[in-house]
Amino acid sequence: MIMFDVSWVIISIFMIQHAVCKEFPKGHLQYLGEHQAANGDITTITADQITSLEFYNNYVAKNKPLLIKQVLQRSTPVLKWTDQYLKEKFGKLRVNVDNNKQENRLIPSSEMEFQQFLSIYLESKTHYMISTMNMEMQKEFPLPTVINCDGFVSRFQDFVMWFSGGNTRSKLHYDNVENMYCQISGTKHWFIVDPADAEGHIVIDHPEGAFSGVNVTSVDMLKYPGMQGLQWWSANLTPGDCIYMPLNWWHQVTSPPSRNMAINIWWAPVLEEVVNFPCQRQHVGATLSDFNFVYGEWIRYNIGEFIKSHGSVVNYTVMHDNIVHEHTGVHVITKENFDLLDINGDGDVTIMELLSLPPDIVHKATNYAEIGALNTNGESVKYADDEPDDDVNYYQEL
Ligand SMILES: *[C@@H]1O[C@H](CO)[C@@H](O)[C@H](O)[C@H]1NC(C)=O
Ligand SMILES: *[C@@H]1O[C@H](CO)[C@@H](O)[C@H](O)[C@H]1NC(C)=O
């Protein structure tokens, strides 16, 4: 009798487990990454092991992420930025603050004085400062040596400060711009997916911002079955580390609850037709304030990809019809603008013509479109009033 009972219990447990496993795949309703262990950490080196040209050739040109330790030395002033110091020096600046830490793109951000943010952020469950650095702040941030040559500094798009009391969680997303992200205070954990491994696994159900709607604190494996078997890599940033996140690589970034600050540098991707990446001159001792944002380079990359997707040569009709300002629907390539790009006047624009133009002319040819606001598929997207309509492709939470 006892034997019978015991085996019945064992069989029951086995059956229940089997049923649970069958209905709920591993990681179901758990944090992103619980479905299987990471393949490992991404390649990790120290800053003194690599030059900017090696970094370009071995990582950027190959679209490979890299974690670089000790980019910011302990003596770097930014690593010693206290709230008191920030308040005294920059307190009156207006900064942009998101009203949510679990990224939700439907909640609009707001502006406030930096000193107000500083007085509330540690206790706040919602405030997350995501704001372009002011010139005075840029002066205190040394240009990382891995990106200190002309090819990089001539493509800078934005320098953004990410500041909170921690406990932040981004969406699973990718960006259409290159990213060097440096931790100043606290730690950040990165969940990283190679675009080649994402295919058939990650569903882009929000194409306007290239992100997945999957709830990263509670992954619904039934709604997103592709998340099973998704291979991923990890990286953990501590103060002084920078991570290179290539465009189009999927990532999701989490911070534990405590003061957390990072600064990132966005730069425009380099078209693969660029054969000589200019990297002879090193800007030794430079700070971020020494450089301007060159928006024409981001436009150049996007128009270049557009030209390639149309057989490497495009005429006025093709450009005019397809290149559209995302929010207004305006076809920005007028005949006059087309003629700026068609250097030899033969009625076609080629990649080589595009590459030979100064960035300002490329930008002018789109009526100085703001970053992230051009669509090259002929479509414009109108957002509902309650949705953010600025820079939706460009700023992605980290
Ligand atoms: C994600 O899941 C958690 C846990 O179930 C829930 O509290 C949270 O509201 C969900 N987030 C969204 C955006 O649905
Ligand atoms: C422009 O190029 C498209 C696609 O190659 C072609 O169909 C069209 O006839 C061309 N238009 C002119 C005016 O040459």
TrEMBL record:
Keyword annotations: Signal
InterPro entries: Cupin_8, EF_Hand_1_Ca_BS, JmjC_dom
Keyword Signal: yes
The keyword Signal is assigned to this record: yes
Signal peptide positions (record): 1-21
Any one Gene Ontology molecular-function term assigned to this protein's record: 2-oxoglutarate-dependent dioxygenase activity
Domain of life of the organism encoding this protein: Eukaryota
Pfam families with a match to the protein in the record: Cupin_8
Segments forming domain JmjC: 130-282
PANTHER family: HYPOXIA-INDUCIBLE FACTOR 1 ALPHA INHIBITOR-RELATED, JMJC DOMAIN-CONTAINING PROTEIN
Protein's UniProt name: JmjC domain-containing protein 7
